[in-house]
Amino acid sequence: MRAAILTSPGDIAGRPLEIGEAPEPEAEPGHVLLRVRACGVCRTDLHIVEGELPRRRETLIPGHQIVGEVVGGATAELPVGARVGVSWMGGTDGTCPYCRRGLENLCDAPTFTGYTVNGGYAGYASARADFVFPLPPKLDDLDAAPLLCAGIIGFRSLRVAGVEPGDRVGLFGFGASAHLAIAVLHSWNCAVYVSTRGDSHRRLAQSLGAAWVGAEKDKPPVELDRAITFAPSGDVVVAALASLRKGGVVAINAIHLDRMPEFDYDRLLWGERQLRSVANMTRADARDFLDIAAAIGLKPKVTAFPLDQANEALLAVKRDAIDGAAVIVP
Ligand SMILES: [Zn+2]
Ligand SMILES: [Zn+2]
């Protein structure tokens, strides 16, 4: 099969993904074999390909927002031809203290799609049958792909931030995840304040109904109840903290930050303000979010790339050169 293969991580401008032939995944017990119909591109893929996350495999096929069709390992619940989604959480042990507490996102021995196992930048992919999600028929392949990480983890970030209906919520950064979160927030009657770099990201936020839009480090005109940061930048986290009311929460939706700068405790964290990271997702997050997405008719803004343009798709994500989400179509 055709695949985008990583053997030596490096700057994406140097095209570290090799597009070539790879063996099809072998049938494994408890897994389904999927023909990949589309695979979303996530900033985490970029961190993996550029080597900012520790290397876990000699050769790797990235991609963890897979829309696939069951072609092997079918079961009564997942018959041949069923269309399913696969996300970053590719499996858990089910036995560690976190799994036993219902915190499978923090599992001590997790499998991550497109990182510890091969992912969806390929013609075919294998996935644990109990970690795939049937997709609502009204979402087409391209629209469903970005929901599977950008959407689900954005949604989890809203939960981690403790968003309540009617809250004033700040989104710092306005890429694939934020442009989906804003629709969920509006369905909860929240007012959304967006700080982001890039004119076109600001225009997109405006067109999606943000109450206020500013540049990356601009301070929203009101004190926020909650803020979610999406940029891989510690300065942005501090800017978000500086925008909170007492008792407010910042949730950091980033697997990697450039650094965490020193900040003034008395002014920025005192007053029971909270700073929380968002790690991975649970299957319940995925199911709940996909239900909401179908109910509100969530429609991502998508730019499609053929598989042999996988490096270019990641470069576009790095440069914030596209609005919404990039999706690879093998
Ligand atoms: Zn576990
Ligand atoms: Zn992701």
Task: Describe the fold and architecture.
- The protein is of the alpha/beta class and 330 residues long.
- The protein is 25% helix and 26% strand.
- It has helices at 43-49, 97-100, 141-144, 150-160, 176-187, 199-207, 234-241, 265-268, 283-296, 310-318, and strands at residues 2-6, 17-21, 31-41, 66-72, 83-86, 89-91, 111-112, 124-128, 132-134, 168-172, 191-195, 212-214, 224-229, 244-252, 274-277, 302-306, 325-329.
- Strand 16 (302-306), helix 10 (310-318) and strand 17 (325-329) form a beta-alpha-beta unit.
- It is globular.
- The site of one zinc ion has 5 residues, from loops.
Order of helices and strands: EEEHEEEHEEEHHEHEHEEHEHEHEHE
Low-confidence stretches: none
Structural class: alpha/beta
Q: Roughly how much helix do the residues carry, as a percent range?
A: 10-25%
Distinct ligand kinds: zinc ion
Radius of gyration: 19 Å
Mean pLDDT over all positions: 96
Tally of alpha and pi helices: 10
Distance between the termini: 10 Å
The percentage of residues in β strands lies in 25-35%
Largest sheet: 7 strands, mixed
What is the overall shape?
A: globular
Q: Please report the total strand number as a whole number.
A: 17
Features:
single chain; 330 residues; alpha/beta; six-stranded parallel beta sheet; 10 helices; binds zinc ion
